[in-house]
Amino acid sequence: MHLHKLEKWWLILGVSALIIFLIVLGFGAFYMGTHPQSHGLTIDPNNVEANEAFQQENLGLTKVDEDHYIVNVVASAFNYDLGVDEDGNSVSHIKIPKGASVLFQVVTTDVIHGFNIAGTNVNMMVEPGYVSSMEVQMNNVGEFTLLCNEYCGVGHHMMFTTVEVYE
Ligand code: CUA
After folding, report:
1. The whole model's pTM is what?
2. Which of 30, 43, 46, 91 has its CA 20 to 30 Å from the CA of residue 15?
3. Whose CA is closest to atom 1 on ligand 1?
4. What pLDDT, on a 0 to 100 scale, did the predictor assign at position 39?
């Protein structure tokens, strides 16, 4: 079979690009620990409170023990519901001690939202009907922005809050 020289180069370019992409993907998945959130658990988006974790009083940060925390979140356009504080105000900032293991459990009551804590490995898609969950160890101190990275409507850019990891 005769291949034109340029056609050969084009094939080499295409196959090399494919191999490079697979290496990048493999590096992210196996070395950097990036992986899709669990999608095993389903939930009725019109009645998320049927799951105890997403009842109003269980939202936000809960301490399990010295170094284990759970953060339950109900996302909706254009807000992350992290529960209320003692004064009844909506929580918009959570504080986690350095090195703690945190289980994030997130659901949406309307459209698809993102759940990305910029600068960490936490980056989930939150789809109606599913509980997106991910456990991570917060090892870097600082204030991180938790934001929505799936376009969800006119208020998309206002959908963010902050997560602080302290020493
Ligand atoms: Cu929620 Cu974009």
Report:
1. 0.78
2. 30
3. 113
4. 57
